[in-house]
Write a structure and sequence with these properties.
The complex is a heterodimer of chains A (479) and B (196). Chain A has 479 residues and is mainly α. Chain A has helices spanning 20-32, 37-63, 78-89, 91-102, 108-133, 160-193, 197-206, 214-247, 259-285, 294-324, 328-338, 346-358, 366-369, 372-398, 415-438, 444-454, 456-462, 464-468, 470-477. Chain A is built from 19 helices and no strands. In chain A, α3 runs antiparallel to α14 (372-398) and α9 packs antiparallel against α10 (294-324). Chain B folds into two domains: 4-50 and 126-178, Alpha-Beta Plaits; 54-119, no CATH class. In chain B, strands 2-4-1-5 form a four-stranded antiparallel sheet, with helices on one face. A two-stranded antiparallel sheet of chain B has the order 3-6. In chain B, 34% of the residues are buried. Classes of the chains: A mainly alpha (479), B alpha+beta (196). The interface between A and B is large, with 75 and 70 residues.
Chain lengths: 479, 196
């Protein structure tokens, strides 16, 4: 009899006939063998995109933000759209690792490592946009509050843009610490299996001399739990603060109190979609179907349909408020600039509605939730939709606000702004390819910890009584 | 630090490990440590180590962060640089909340991780003796420290009877030192084996 009991009704989280050693072998093998040709192809494409992005950024640094077709009216274009989009994607990792840890959701163990990695890389990409949007990026250190010889001149702590600096940098730091502290025991596993000298050296450095001592595990557990407790409100605060960038302004379409929950739900929505896109590929290529099961995919699809519906609710609330407030600027933003399909940017609003509100509704059906191909397709759709959402919020609100004389005709990005966006894709996927090759993609120690309660072969052995004599079982386990 | 003599018993099942730990302790042996590939719940209490106070440290770091944020922003906007921002009060507490919260979390998280590494003596290039390489893979490795009174053969037999799949004796440095895992490095200080 094992230490902990889990019902037969729950699907196993680890499929197949596994023991502890088998888990180690399955997860460490991709690190120890040469990557496939496909890996090299993907990696070099990512690096090429990254280099194109670097050149685009170089153009912007030399010639200014005019290179992006930004003008006096549309001062926030693709760059801030992309910033909000990437930060949103970065929310799923910490949600999975922190909030689901506090909620004791066993299925998080299969996906948390990769999702956290995704978070860190996405936040790295997001950070590039506000930094280079400064225009004079070499003055970027002005955001740091320190006693200086300029007065001292301090940053404005009352400004949401300043809160963003603190929120994003704290979020990045805490996610990185959380991720890395979880990686220590797994790096030690790779180190102790290593056959080559280089691998012994590198994973020896990376594992900080981890031994697996009981006292260390005890502290590690305490650390993970408290970091999860800290990261939970942090996740919610980060996108809340990002939404304050808009909500505290007086632009029609932005000045609403609904923004914080609406942004957080949208962030989780897009983050889970990105997690799906990545993990469906990773589980296939690295043969990890036993650890990232259909059950995991289904669980994430449930979160997608929930958050997608919350976002849909928020869209409808906004529309209603635009009517109910009887504010003509608000009504113009919602019923002309956005709602009218034939207005200059109407396409983006209806694209957003189709991708974010209508299409995820397919996940109400269990059969479709468990369909891998459909899930992959939907994850792309959802992320496109979420990009549209940020574009709608930013551009349709500012291209025509109050004074018709300051309206702009039609803003479309230049090749260098698109290049910057592609460059962050390059950065993201370069990092992710390296992660998939050199890091344990699944939290090995955590999988071992749940193996005997949630592993397929152990579950069957554990309680035949539940299957054979349900009445007796209820009697035994009823309190 | 001196090298010590240890009897090392490896178990392949945590359900066998628990009764064995209990019996070893009742028999009066001193468990140096148990190395496991994942956190085994209840093992810390079974081998008699006290609860960690790491979370208390985290709380103290957290309130340090709160105090730092409020103190700094308050001082800057009331004393050092009292600039009028849209007619808001100089000490605009609601506007200070987001940064105060972020710094609380940041201080607490960074402080805890550093404390964790300090307490566990973990750092890049730190090396320790590994009693079994499979302790990070699939074995639960119980390490018992030999004292002058310990009868090694008895202890080995005792462990085998209690389900250990492999028992051996090792002389090892229990502390840590700087080293690389791709090299067999001796300690900088010359060590000797304690007479048993």
């Amino acid at each position: 009899m094992s230490l902990k009991y889990e019902s037969q009704l729950r699907e196993p989280l680890v499929d197949g006939d596994k023991n502890y050693h088998q888990v180690t072998v399955d997860i460490c093998t991709p690190i120890e063998v040469k990557p496939s040709k496909l890996w090299y192809v993907g990696f070099y494409i990512s690096v090429a995109l990254l280099l194109f992005g670097v050149y685009s950024v170089y153009r912007e640094v030399v010639y200014g933000t005019g290179q992006w077709n930004l003008n006096k009216t549309v001062g926030w274009g693709w760059d801030i759209t992309n910033f909000v989009w990437w930060v949103g994607i970065g929310h799923a990792g910490t949600l999975i690792s922190a909030i689901l840890l506090l909620f004791r959701q066993g299925w998080r163990t299969g996906v948390n490592r990769a999702a956290e990695a995704m978070t860190i890389f996405a936040v790295m990409c997001a950070g590039q946009f506000p930094i280079f949007h400064m225009g004079r990026v070499w003055m970027g250190f002005f955001v740091m509050p320190y006693p200086n010889t300029r007065g001292p001149v301090w940053p404005n702590f009352d400004s949401p843009l300043m809160w963003d600096v603190f929120a994003i940098s704290t979020y990045f730091t805490v996610s990185l610490l959380f991720w890395y502290s979880g990686l220590l025991p797994d790096f030690a596993t790779v180190r102790d299996r290593a056959k080559t000298k280089l691998r012994k050296l590198l994973y020896g450095i990376a594992s900080f001399g981890w031994t697996g001592s009981t006292k260390h595990w005890q502290r590690h557990e305490s650390l993970s739990l408290v970091l999860a407790g800290l990261a939970t409100p942090l996740v919610l605060s980060v996108h809340t603060i990002v939404s304050f960038d808009f909500a505290t302004s007086v632009i029609p379409g932005w000045h609403t109190t609904i923004f914080p929950p609406y942004f957080v739900a949208g962030a989780i929505f897009s983050g889970f979609a990105m997690t799906q896109s990545l993990l469906i590929v990773v589980r296939k290529v690295l043969h990890l179907e036993d650890y990232i099961t259909i059950g995991h995919i289904e669980a994430m699809n449930k979160v997608i349909v929930l958050t997608g519906s919350i976002v849909g609710c928020a869209y409808l609330t906004e529309l209603f408020m635009a009517f109910y407030s009887q504010n003509k600027y608000e009504a113009y933003a919602f019923f002309y600039s956005r709602g009218n399909l034939f207005s200059p940017y109407g396409w983006s609003y209806w694209g957003m509605m189709a991708c974010n509100v209508l299409s995820p509704q397919v996940f109400w059906f269990r059969k479709l939730r468990r369909n891998v191909t459909l899930t992959f397709f939907m994850s792309i759709i959802v992320n496109t939709g979420m990009w549209f959402e940020r574009f709608v919020i930013i551009v349709t609100s500012i291209y025509r606000d109050y004074l018709p004389s300051s309206w702009t005709v039609y803003y479309s990005p230049s090749i260098w702004e698109v290049g910057f966006y592609l460059g962050t894709f390059g950065l993201f996927f370069t990092c992710f390819f390296l992660f998939a090759k050199y890091f344990p993609v699944i939290a090995t120690a955590e999988i071992k910890a749940i193996l005997k309660t949630s592993g397929e072969n152990y579950k069957d052995r554990m309680t035949p009584i539940e299957k054979e004599e349900p009445a007796e079982f209820v009697h035994q386990f009823a309190h | 630090m001196a090298k010590k003599k240890f009897v090392v018993g490896s178990f392949d099942n945590e359900d066998v490990l628990f009764p064995a730990v209990k019996k070893v302790r009742t028999a009066g042996y001193k468990i140096h440590d148990v190395y496991t590939p994942f956190p085994v719940h209840g093992l810390d209490h079974a081998i008699g180590i006290r609860e960690t106070s790491l979370h208390t440290a985290g709380f103290i770091y957290g309130i340090t962060g709160t105090a730092t944020a409020l103190g700094c922003m308050g001082w800057i906007f009331t004393t050092d640089w009292p600039v009028n921002i849209g007619g808001k009060p100089h000490f605009a507490l609601p506007a200070f909340i987001p940064i105060t919260f972020e710094l609380t979390v940041l201080f607490s998280a960074v402080g805890m991780v550093i404390t964790f590494c300090y307490l566990c003596q973990m750092m890049p290039f730190v090396k320790k003796h590994h009693f079994s390489l499979r302790a990070t893979d699939d074995l639960f490795v119980m390490v018992i420290e030999c004292t002058a009174k310990t009868n090694v053969d008895d202890l080995k037999a005792f462990l085998t009877n209690n389900g250990a799949i492999d028992v051996n004796v090792q002389e090892a440095e229990p502390g840590w030192w700087f080293g690389r895992y791709d090299k067999d490095q001796q300690l900088i200080r010359d060590t000797y084996v304690q007479p048993v």
